[in-house]
Design goal:
The complex is a heterodimer.
Chain A lengths: L2 E5 L2 E5 L4 E8 L5 E7 L5 E7 L5 E3 L5 E5 L4 E6 L8 E8 L6 E3 L3 E6 L1
Parallel strand pairs in A: 2-11
Antiparallel strand pairs in A: 1-3, 3-8, 4-5, 4-9, 6-7, 7-8, 9-10, 9-11
Chain B lengths: L3 E4 L2 E4 L4 E8 L5 E7 L6 E7 L2 E5 L6 E7 L2 E7 L7 E8 L8 E2 L3 E5 L1
Parallel strand pairs in B: 2-11
Antiparallel strand pairs in B: 1-3, 3-8, 4-5, 4-9, 5-6, 7-8, 9-10, 9-11
Classes of the chains: A mainly beta, B mainly beta.
Chain lengths: ~110, ~110
């Protein structure tokens, strides 16, 4: 069965530091992959997605993620954290042709001034 | 209105009440979803509708009853809920059920007393 694992339920970085949120998936077929962000009392907002083609994907707010098939990973990065990046981040996977988007458990990102 | 809207944003109800959550998407999508988001738990998919037909029902208790009168509107009818049903209920839509990113509404924060 397909699953998504996010390493670390809580990540804390200093303002201006590198942000790295880890996501691994388990699937025999490379899925479509997504990162969503959820700010307090709001729904999920799509940050970026990988379907096919270039493995380095750029999203909104300066975030990017790289699909690595050999490592079954899709880690999210941002070179320099901003206070406004504090939120919960969800990685999700969708098998091509399937109806169900499988979510990881989420990572809460805290930015220290 | 743009995107996906949900009403009400907050709802407090007793265990014997009957209430309904409403979701509307203004994106011209063909698929709609209900999710439950509880504290410290992964996002749980409850129902999936494609072109107003229910295509997935993830063993959700019968006290939750979805309704999709057209491709733009989705309801979740609630009756005789339990305190453990308190959660954030998120609605989402996508172009189709397969292989497309989902767009989320802001959610309804439900408290069952």
């Amino acid at each position: 069965a397909q699953s998504v694992t996010q390493l670390g339920s809580h990540v804390s970085v200093s303002e201006g530091a590198l942000v790295l949120l880890r996501c691994n998936y388990s699937s025999s077929v490379p899925p479509y992959l997504f990162w969503y962000v959820q700010y307090p009392n709001q729904g999920l907002q799509l940050l970026l997605k990988y379907t096919t083609g270039a493995t380095l994907v750029k999203g909104i707010n300066g975030f990017e993620a790289e699909f690595k098939k050999s490592e079954t990973s899709f880690h999210l990065t941002k070179p320099s954290a901003h206070m406004s990046d504090a939120a919960e981040y969800f990685c999700a996977a969708l098998i091509q042709g399937a109806q169900k988007l499988v979510f990881g458990q989420g990572t809460r990102l805290t930015i220290n001034p | 209105e743009t995107g996906v809207t949900q009403t009400p944003r907050h709802l407090v109800m007793g265990m014997t009440n009957k209430k309904s959550l409403k979701c509307e998407q203004h994106l011209g999508h063909n698929a709609m979803y209900w999710y439950k988001q509880s504290a410290k738990k992964p996002l749980e998919l409850m129902f999936v509708y494609s072109l107003e037909e229910r295509v997935e029902n993830n063993s959700v208790p019968s006290r939750f009853s979805p309704e999709c009168p057209n491709s733009s509107h989705l309801f979740l009818h609630l009756h005789t809920l339990q305190p453990e049903d308190s959660a954030l209920y998120l609605c989402a839509s996508s172009q189709d059920v397969s292989g497309y990113e989902q767009y989320f509404g802001p959610g309804t924060r439900l408290t069952v007393t």
